């Protein structure tokens, strides 16, 4: 990075908060994307840690005048390389913008700076009894700003939906440096085009999110986790459809191939309680009353029996529940080092049994495996193509395209929750029409005519 | 309208479906906006009734080439003049595009053409036991396309949220005539900028919505309506906040000044059951079980006693519930003829007691009244400035601005659900920054460079 820019940044945020040292910079260059598909980053990039929107505004103005790309780095928990600077960029780390501005119990809204992590928010909410924020993308190191920028989902989307449903206001810095407030503590607001909804999920390419206002909810008092073993994934997914149809709204419905659960438990030094069958379902319930919890359990039990679930384990204590969730979440560790390409496809939930069946056959025809973790009730599947002898298999691109085509055949999408980032820019063109991509590009030009915000993410301009 | 255009339209949709007769055209020129604030329409406009997206695409292409404005007419149940053609326009009535394409129980999704009315949808869903679509803006003559275009709310938004939360896919005709499909039967989809969310609420100015895919839900089996009388609106709104805080999620929480309920009942030949106090609350509950219904009723009862509710009437039968709702909805008839200006302000829900108190004082200082109907739990208020001796009062603009300023003081918005239409274009500039309006205008130009779609709605271009 040019010395003039370094000087300007030091002058703006203070020398303690500008990182030029390569080793120190490294942890800001990537998110949690698999090593094998990491974007090539430009290490001449510089990292700055502004304290507030005003400082960001000044940095953005400078960057605009000098046509220097800007990449915002949140918690770095993304999985598609969205935070990697592929050009020589100013990387803005939001870590110092970590103030919880307000927990407003009167309006059941919170206002936080974008750098507040999910862990921090949860800790703060524990001081206010009986109030919760429901979205949980798994890694609590995620920052709220990043969760808005990527419209995060996660396991609890079954009952509570995704970020989009809960965010009511944002403060953003536009690419021209202007600070703009959109929405507020309002439950209803129909004043013109909803720019808030447009910016949500735009992955740092339209504006820099600096502050967030979102809904809080009364916490359900009664929870339980149930783990069920099915013969196969078809039975498991049909059971889930019928459970939902019966009016049960679980907090989460997590499917995982037995192999992943057993291996993950091994790594964690825990015991996975199921052995019969090969397809495991973890259902987490949260209800307002014990009666409601019991009624939901009854329905689940009856439906799962019908689909030949061979064993159900109820986890009542917090410790048991946490262990099961840890095993589920730990499965990534089992396969992480061996991933050649990682998927986040989603199909209409009712098509899951057929889609997964076809997916299994397709993978099998290549003489390989592709273990499945799925938010089954949402139709969202995580699977992978693995490396062979530490290298990408020859069939990688071919199998990938066949998987996508299968997904599109079922009316699916190539990313249900992880987003496009730098990983799926080309993939996007397989799914979207030219007209839609052209509209997206034109909107990008409206917000960011110099293409300085996170170039090479979502769209190739 | 020029003969060439008339001929083209007759050629495209057939002579039976082109209306040139002034008397027949009249019912397509307005929505339900009060007579006093009706926009001035251009009666040289022509009405066409296309059968499908392809016909609409052809009409739009022709209109684009000839720079003729297009206004889409749905159910005509709007309240801000959105459907009125203020320039010589082609008015596209969606009434023939009324096919329910699919009730997909497997995916719990419905696909309908944009001209399907809410009444028609409800009737169809009754054939599929236990399935419902929750949004209900009051007038069942509303078409689904219009409900998407305006991001409709209504009484049931308390529990189920607004249209935006439930719509998963749309087919639109762009101003260049291209037919575009956005989203699908997907619960999660993070592929690029969410144009679906941008078009929702854009009031027919960005694209013509022709088909809609939306979620269906298992219907709650147990319902009850409770009517409560409070001394004043402050007590009523504080009670509502506490009820919600206690985890009760009513289907609807409708407030109405006693005067409106009594007069509305009179007009309908019904009896309003409350007499003590002056502030009436109608709470509608829907729950999965009788126990849950009873538990919610208990909480409501306890909280309302604390806030001195003097009488509670439980309506258990469908007939009783329908009567109460009819009286609530009929209140518009009481004041309709006398309205000089009609409001749809919303403030953060927790500020409602203070806001309503200040609003009452403000209105009182002008020696007038402004009866209130409110979706209390959503912070959404409907009130009016009345005519004096059949004319707009001198203080109209002054009082209106003071009401808005009061609303903004509480972090409010000038329209919670009704939208901007042609009624509030100037008002929008009081609330929104120049930067935000400029972004909206630029987005409008991206979609509709010739400004042919519903000119004079939302934005003055």
UniProtKB/TrEMBL annotation, chains A, B:
Source domain of life: Bacteria
Keyword 4Fe-4S attached: no
PROSITE patterns referenced in this protein's UniProt entry, alphabetically: FAD_PCMH (PS51387)
PANTHER family membership: GLYCOLATE OXIDASE SUBUNIT GLCD
Signal sequence extent: none
SUPFAM superfamilies in UniProt: FAD-binding/transporter-associated domain-like, FAD-linked oxidases, C-terminal domain
EC number(s) on file: 1.-.-.-
Alphabetized UniProt keyword annotations: FAD, Flavoprotein, Oxidoreductase
InterPro entries according to UniProt: FAD-bd_oxidored_4_C (IPR004113), FAD-bd_PCMH (IPR016166), FAD-bd_PCMH-like_sf (IPR036318), FAD-bd_PCMH_sub2 (IPR016169), FAD-linked_Oxase-like_C (IPR016164), FAD-linked_OxidoTrans_Type4 (IPR051914), Oxid_FAD_bind_N (IPR006094), Vanillyl_alc_oxidase_C-sub2 (IPR016171)
Protein name: FAD-linked oxidoreductase
Lineage: Bacteria, Bacillati, Bacillota, Clostridia, Eubacteriales
Record domain FAD-binding PCMH-type: where: 40-219
Cofactor(s) required for function per UniProt: FAD
A family per Pfam: FAD-oxidase_C
